[in-house]
Amino acid sequence: MTPNLFDDPRITAIGLFSEVHSGLTNRFAAQFDQHDLSAVEFEVLMRLARSPRRELRMTDLASQTSLSTSGVTRVVDRMERDGLLCRRACPTDRRSSYAVLTDAGLTRIEETLPGHLALIDEFFTGLLDAGQLKDLLSTLRVIRDAANPGAMVGTTDTSQSGE
């Protein structure tokens, strides 16, 4: 392997992306812990809060998150026991069910969001001017759509979902 490959901008890009993700994830985890949430539980609550009628089919929730179908079932089971979500049977397909955000779940996410947004502003979007942020969002959507084409399943507003 030649030394030039080590300096390849593709390696630099994915390395920087990984470092940013890791750093933000660590900061977010401490803040989520203050609200008795894991990162996955926060992600599920946010997906549901931003969805029409605050609900998603379980399979769509799995597609939009970092969870497998069985993983989303386990998380929803736990969150249902905690009163943050409930399940609703799909009226048109007996094999499907919806995860639905409860009022308690909405309250939990509303309590968590101010601190989360402060961290995002301090360590991510607040470091960019309006043009840089617009370009970043556009770029991230292109990459997301290629890397995770199922991320938009079950959504109706593509300008808002996945952020």
From TrEMBL:
Name of protein: DNA-binding MarR family transcriptional regulator
Residue intervals of the HTH marR-type domain: 1-145
One Gene Ontology term from the biological process aspect of the record: response to stress
MF annotations from Gene Ontology: DNA binding; DNA-binding transcription factor activity
Record organism: Catenuloplanes indicus
Keywords assigned: DNA-binding
Domain of life of the source: Bacteria
